[in-house]
Amino acid sequence: MAAPISTTYTPEQRAEGIAFVLDQVTAGASVAQAIAAGRKAGKCVPSKAVFWVWHRESEELQDRLARARLAGVEAQIEDAIDILDGTDLERDEDGKLRNPDDAYLMDTQRAKARAHARFQRAMMIAPRKYGPKIDVTSDGQKLHDPQAGTAAAVIDVLSSVAKRVGDSGALPSPSSTLDDLLS
Fold first, then answer.
1. Any idea what the Cα angle at residue 156 is, between residues 150 and 162, rounded to 5°?
2. In the beta sheet, which residues pair with residue 42?
3. What CA–CA distance (Å, rounded) separates 79 from 90?
4. What is the pTM of this model?
5. Domain map of the chain by residue range?
6. Residue 115 CB neighbours (<10 A)
């Protein structure tokens, strides 16, 4: 039986509802899926509207939801891999589908779309980890290493000095400038 929707919550009910939603989000569910699961299980969870009001008003809840989503990304990636491997379907000991009605889930395009949606969500939530690696600095060309250029210039100067020393046999005076050494 679904829990009745309430607009007023005691602090204990609020904490219980938030904890349930965050646990579900950590397991890879969306907030809407978590609230629906809580209602179905008879838990005291808020409506989506109430949850988002609480979220907007509480910086702590915003931080906790962000952390739960990051943890849930890993579950989403694992879920996507299970979908692509076909291991998300219940099978008996012989490897046959337990529920013949689940045969439509074997459709390759549907599985691909389900996995793609999970990867896209992972890229949105954790773009540094799962997002595309975009070259924004060099337009695809090899970057110039300024230290490598400096090292090459120092080697050129030293080889020029060595040639001068080798030609005359005398070391340059301490008062010699770089231009004197290179000319």
1. 135
2. none
3. 14
4. 0.53
5. 11-130, 147-182
6. 20
Q: Are 76 and 68 within 8 A, CB to CB?
A: no
Instruction: Kindly report the backbone phi and psi dihedral angles of residue 91, in degrees, each rounded to the nearest multiple of 5, phi listed first.
Output: -125, 155
Structure tokens at 152: 């090459």
In single-letter form, the type of residue at position 40 comes to: K
Q: Which residues contact 71 (CB under 8 A, 6 or more apart)?
A: 26
DSSP 42: T
What is the distance between the alpha carbons of residues 16 and 41, in angstroms, rounded to a whole number? 13
Residue 146 vs residues 70, 143, 150, 153: alpha-carbon distances, Å = 37, 9, 6, 11
- The number of CA neighbours under 13 Å toward the Cβ of 166 is 6
**90 forms bridges with which residues in the sheet?**
none
CATH architecture of 11-130: Orthogonal Bundle (1.10)
Closest among 129, 150, 36, 39 to 76, alpha carbons compared: 129
Q: What CA–CA distance (Å, rounded) separates 155 from 162?
A: 10
- The first and second tokens of residue 52, run together, are 């988002």
User: Can you give the pLDDT of all 183 residues of the chain as single tens digits?
Assistant: 455 455 688 889 899 999 999 999 999 888 999 999 999 998 889 999 999 999 999 999 999 999 999 888 888 888 777 777 665 566 667 766 666 555 555 566 677 777 888 888 888 887 877 777 666 666 666 655 555 556 666 666 666 666 665 555 555 555 555 566 555
